[in-house]
Amino acid sequence: MTEDIRIFSYLPNPRVWKSLITAKLAKVEIKVIGDKPRNLPEWLWDFDAKKLEEIDSEELRKYKRQSKRGFKGDLFKTDEFLDKHPFGTVPAGFNSDGSVGIFESNSIMRAVARASNNHKLYGGTNKLTQSRIDSFLDANLVFAREFQVYVLELTELNDYLYKRMTSAYLFYLDGIEKALANQSYIVGNELSIADISFVCDFAQFLRERDSKEIINNQGYEIISKNFEEEFPYVFEHLMKLYQRQEFKEVMQDYLDKAFT
Ligand SMILES: N[C@@H](CCC(=O)N[C@@H](CS)C(=O)NCC(=O)O)C(=O)O
Question: What is the pLDDT of residue 2?
């Protein structure tokens, strides 16, 4: 059976988990290709991604590109890859024949949800619910971008960066806490991709707790230090979903360390 969506990425990657969890819940066929983060420079980034050792060294030269974000040095990306993925990032999603590229992990997840029979995780047929889900996904991306910068600079923090991250954290969590105050899920009373995206991105952010010493040594505190007490609805929601089978199978024990 051919897959509905193909994803190339470094693995494991919480951004890919969004699509994996959605695929499990929505019974959509996806194929994930990739390797450890440090090995991705040894791959040709393409719909038909492969290890560089399979490619002639003369041919390889034309694929060489300077990395832009999250990687150092050179990466190898085909022209077709850059045509489908103009920002050149992973996770890189594709439709089943590779003729369409889908980038941004939230959008790849949306494509997976749309590939299901009933789009249940993406508001079903209700366009307003779909738009409300989109609203949370946009808010989530703003938060995720902020913490991407924070994580990449974690060993060289400064006041500007730290304040920006703190304010993005408080802004985002305050909104999610309010959304969850009177309902069981982020959008209404049904699980949606807004919840899935929240769990995957926020779980990744909480791993700042693994770097407590590095952060403290620079004179700063863990931003999520009092998360459980300050945002009880968010905490409860995160734990409820983290323990759910479809999430657990993908995330395994990723968050356990953050709560010990
Ligand atoms: N917001 C994007 C982030 C993707 C992203 O920034 N990916 C980086 C790695 S963390 C990348 O692929 N960089 C490629 C490069 O450096 O050329 C998403 O959620 O998919």
Answer: 80
Residue 157 contacts by C-beta under 8 Å, 6 or more apart in sequence?
A: 215, 218, 220
Neighbours of 151 (CB within 10 A): 15
Report whether residue 104 contacts ligand 1, using a CB cutoff of 6 Å. yes
| Predicted confidence (pLDDT) per residue in 42-71, tens digit | 999 999 999 999 899 899 999 999 999 999
Residue nearest to ligand 1 atom 11, measured at CA = 89
CATH: 3.40.30.10, 3.40.50.1760, 1.10.1040.10, 3.40.50.880. Which one for 5-114?
3.40.30.10
Helix (H) or strand (E) holding 224: none
Closest listed residue to residue 25, CA positions, set 197, 181, 184: 197
Tell me the sheet residues that pair with 224: none
Question: Which residue type sits at 159?
Answer: D
- Which atom from ligand 1 is nearest to the alpha carbon of 75? 17
**CB-ligand 1 contact for 84 (6 Å cutoff):** no
The pLDDT of 221-226, averaged and rounded, is 97
Contact in structure between 97 and 3 (CB atoms under 8 Å): no
Average pLDDT over residues 178-198: 97
Give distance in angstroms: CA of 90 to centre of ligand 1. Answer: 5
68 lines ligand 1 (CB under 6 A): yes
Q: Is the CB of 9 under 6 A from ligand 1?
A: no
Number of alpha carbons in the 13 Å side-chain half-sphere of residue 150: 30
pTM above 0.85, yes or no: yes
Show me where the domains of the chain are located. 5-114, 123-259
